[in-house]
Structure formats: structure tokens, C-alpha cells
Amino acid sequence: MSLDISQNKDTGLDPQYLLVKYLVPVLEHKWFVLFCIIVFLIIAVSLSLLVKPEYSSTATIQLKKLETEENPDIGRIDIGQVVDDTPIFSTAIETMRSSSFRTKIIKTFDDRLKTELEVPLDFPGQIKNKLYPLIEKILRLEKKLSTNEKLEMENKIKQIQLSRLSGRIHIKSDPEKGTIRIVARAFDPTIASLLVDGYIELWKEENINYIKRIIQERLDIARSQLKKDQGYLDEAVQKDLAYRQKIDIPIDRMVVPDPNMQIKLNMLHLAITRATENSDNVNLVVQRLIRLSKSVRDNVIIIDPSQVPFAPSADSRLVIVFFGLILGIALGIAPILALEYYHSYIRHEKDILLAVDIPIIGKLPNIT
């Protein structure tokens, strides 16, 4: 009688076999597993002490249509009557996101804020930032820098601060509503709020300067046009005066008996009237622009002001500790199972089936 030997090698999904084969070796070497867990937990906790939680502060502002201060004599004049204010919103977003604006922001920071920007928000960067100076100090890798090297280092630090500030500030805009949402992230809750407020205050100043610059440009154009229109008016008056002297009629006389002379007088008078109207209209624009340049106020409404956060928005410390625990368990169990697989210890009756290549006739009962 022949038996199918391949059936001897079929272990199946036997829970008892899996427990004996994989759990028992781990329990036999539990102290090694525990040692690995403790070691990696100590390392993870130590690294987590080098990492700070992240705080975020948010503010929402809205841009309203610019107007001048209310004047009882001239009423309220909309700046849009003399200045095109349609690009103001897009200019605000572009200004906030520009490198030049971030450079101005950094110049207003004190040393504490600048030092904060030198540290990256991600926990690998924080750990690296803390460990590298310590390693250099222990190994005595520090060296004296020349003047040029110091200047290069300062420029490098400035570029790092500029790049980090871009990552710390997130700006989201809604053109339809005219709202801008600013979110700042920092290790210090106070600094997170200061970053938002600093962004808004500097942008207000930049926006007002932008509006005044636009008004001044329009004013220069209007004054130039006014000068031309006044020149046209003077020329029209001189032509009218020369013609009256030629035909010998007084200045205040508007009607003459000769039809051809009357037509000429009417044409000269019409030219004076049009030049006067143009000059008066441009002069009105000039006067409005002058008033606007003296009375423009900011067009920012703070809908939701920034607050100092009480709780962190992100904390990587627990992630590091959890990762250390998982790594300790994995590195503790992996060599035990690898050794068990390599030596092929007999721990279960199915191990015999896998080890021998002969038919099984029967099975001896367990004797207790």
C-alpha cells in the first residue's frame, strides 16, 4: 500500500501549530525582546525631548471698497471714481506671497523670532538641528570662520529664514468674498499669533502705500492733461482775440451782421467753450485726487482676529515614541524568528512531518 507523502508536509492553518512554532520561541527569549523594547523606547523618548509641539494661529481679513474719509462739504467720494481699484485684491495676495514682502517681515523680527525661523517644523529637521551642533562640539569640529565665510554664513541663514517663513505662513484667498485667511505655525503659541499680526500690519502699510502711489500716478497724469487743456484754452482765446482785432469788434460782442464773420465767431467761441469744459473737468479730477491723497484710509476689515493658541495643532512626540515601541518589538522578534527558521527546531508533531520523508503508519498516544 502506498501513501501520499506530500500530505505529510501539509501543515494547514492550525492555530495551535502557529502558536507553538512562533509564539513559544518569542516567550522563551522574552527578556531579549523586552531589552530591545526598552532600548528603543529610551532612544525614542530621548529624541522626543528634542522635538517641540507645533502651534497655529489664524486670522481672516476682508478687503472692502476703498473710500475717502467722509467730508460734509464734498460728501463721500468713492476712490473708484478717479482710481481703478479692481487690481487691489490680486495685488494684496501677490504682495503677501512675494519674497520681498517676506524679507521686510523678517527685518521687523527680533532675535527670538529669527532664531525660531531657523528651526524646521518637521521632527527629523528639529532633531538634526539639535544634534548636529552637539556632535560638532563633542568632536571639536568647530572652526574659526574668516570674514568672507561669516558673510556667506549670514546670507545662508537669511535665505533659510526666508524659506522657512514661506513654510510657516499659509495664505488662502476667496476673490468672490474678498477675504484672505492667514494661518501661521510656530513652536511658541505667542510667536504664531505675532506672525499673523505682523503679516497683517505690514501688509496694511504696504497696501496704503500702494494706493497712495496709484493716486499719485493718476494725479501726475491728470496735472499733465490739465496743463495741456489749459494750453488749448489759451490758444483758443488768443485765436478769438486775434480775429476780433482783425475785424475790429469788441470782445463782449457775440453778434455781427456779416454771416461769414458770424460763423467764424461761433466756431471760435465753441472752441473756447469746449476747451473750458475739458479744463474744468480735468481740474475737478485733480482736486479730487489731491483730497484722496490726503484722506485715504486702509480698506482692511479684520473679521476673525488672531488668538494665542492654548493647545498644539500638531505634536510629533507621541508619534516618535510609538514608532520607537514598534521598532523595538520588530527588532526584538525578527532575529528570534529568523534563528528559529534557520535551525528548524522540532516544537510540534507537524515539524516531524515536515522533517521526515517517510509515510506515517500511526500515532502514539500521549502518556501522562
Any overview of this molecule?
The protein is built from eleven helices and four strands; from the N terminus they run ααβαααααββααβαα. The protein has a four-stranded antiparallel beta sheet. The two termini are 33 Å apart. β2 (169-174) and β3 form a beta hairpin. The protein is elongated. By secondary structure, it is an alpha+beta fold. It folds into two domains: 5-49 and 318-355, no CATH class; 55-315, Bacterial polysaccharide co-polymerase-like (2-Layer Sandwich). α4 packs across α7.
Strand content: 5-15%
DSSP summary, beta strand count: 4
Which range best describes the helical content: under 10%, 10-25%, 25-40%, 40-55%, 55-70% or over 70%? 55-70%
* Terminal residue distance: 33 Å
- Tell me, briefly, the overall form: elongated
Determine the mean pLDDT. 77
Q: What's the CATH architecture name of the largest domain?
A: 2-Layer Sandwich
Which key phrases capture this entry?
4 strands; alpha+beta; 2 domains; 368 residues; Bacterial polysaccharide co-polymerase-like; single chain; four-stranded antiparallel β-sheet; 8% strand; elongated; disordered N terminus
Give a quick precis of the structure.
The protein is an alpha+beta fold and 368 residues long.
